[in-house]
User: Fold this.
Amino acid sequence: MQSKYSYLLKDKDVRRWFENLAARSKVTAMVYLRTLSLYCEMNGTDPKALLKVASTKEFRDSFIDFVRSLERQGKAGSYIVRFKKVLRSWFAFNGLDVKLKVNIAGEYDTPTIRDERVPSKEELDRILRLATPRGRVSIALMAFSGLRPESIGNYDGSDGLRLGDFVEAEITDEGLKVSKLPTMLVIRKELSKARHQYFTFVPEQTLTYINEHLSERIENDEELNRQTPLLGFDPRGIRKNSFLRTNLVTRDIREAIRRAGYSWRPYVLRAYFDTNMIIAESKGKVSHPYLQFMMGHKGDIEARYSTNKGVLPPDMIEDMRKCYKECLPYLLTSAQPLEQSSIVIEAKLEA
Assistant:
């Protein structure tokens, strides 16, 4: 890892702390290391020096002054509180129970997303049309199947979705061929934020985008198998990792959103899925436990799935597939049996 804060890892204790965090989440470990480095840089200190003064009143007072200084600079409370969390983590790892009793204004505020809203179908359709073939796949997986970007390609590019994760698909010279629609997509525990395996479903519209992307790679003589990464690299670029990193996945999405004239974050696409599935749930199309499971959240079905080592009864899987299919008119931008106008009419009748 080469970065301006990687020098901290030369200290064995810092490296142990970092690796301990990374065992649960590489993203968290990197964010915490960066934040610790920034705090030390802003205060002219280092991690070991902090341990020596952590229990003193002088340090607690200086931290309060640090917080107030950031508040006066207009920094968001959600940004400032990160320093508090990271310092407590570093101290606790070294056996120090340090109470940083400082109130932070707007600690739970998220000003960057305060006015953010979920795209309409028309807006999502515009984003899809202006995306690259590779970006279109990621957008559809988030908006139509509820995936997180880090499940598509992880933080350091060491893992990501593979063609074999489409467990019901056959890999052919033309891409993925499925016998059932919507088809199942397994999110392995290594790619799950909650570190448990689950599955969701992928509609025909997404499969069309996937096969368009794969056809470009096939034309460039790429051979496909079950271990092949779902997302390919630009053949003109330099391939540094096995899979596309999360920041490249989100870059593809962000660029498409910007081309369409919007300023949303990529994560708004997962909110699109969640919001429209909740609407479908209110219409009796899908149960809440099913929705929880497809979003990758822990719950009753996840517990049963994990206990049975990744196996659910076939009739339950088919019922989930049927429910998901009935939700598609609320999600997809391509023509469906129930058009958007029908949803509006239905809503007006119930109002």
